[in-house]
Structures are given as structure tokens and as C-alpha cells.
Request: fold
Amino acid sequence: MVKVYSITTCPWCEKVKKYLKSKNVEFEEHNIELSEEDRDECYKISGDLIVPVTTVNGKNFVVSFDKAKLDALLGL
Reply:
């Protein structure tokens, strides 16, 4: 399961989501502005509230839009 923790107005969040869609990767979006639970989960994962944070299977994560790391985690 791929999750993207984001905020409403974030160009890097949009880049990550568009990239995942272009690679036909299904993901769940979690807006940390709208959900305290998602905000807390994002903080637990990365130790910060910088977005986007993309997780793969709840274990590994990528902060911001790092195509090389995303590809490595997703096996692309």
C-alpha cells in the first residue's frame, strides 16, 4: 500500500501524485491539514511535518519528490 501525506496547496505533493499516476501506482492520499490522525501518523513516520511524505507498505518512506528513491522503493 502506497500512501502520500500532503497538504492542500503544495506543488511537490502534486508532483508526487502526478508521477505515481503516470506510473499506474495506486495510492491513498492523506491530507495532514484536514486530519489530526493523518498529521500524527506523518510525524511518526518522518519525525517532521514536511510534506509530501510517501510511504510504501508502512515501512519505508520518501520525503519530498525524490524520483530515484520513489523508483527504488516501488521497484520501478
The chain is about 40% helix and 20% strand. The mean pLDDT is 94.
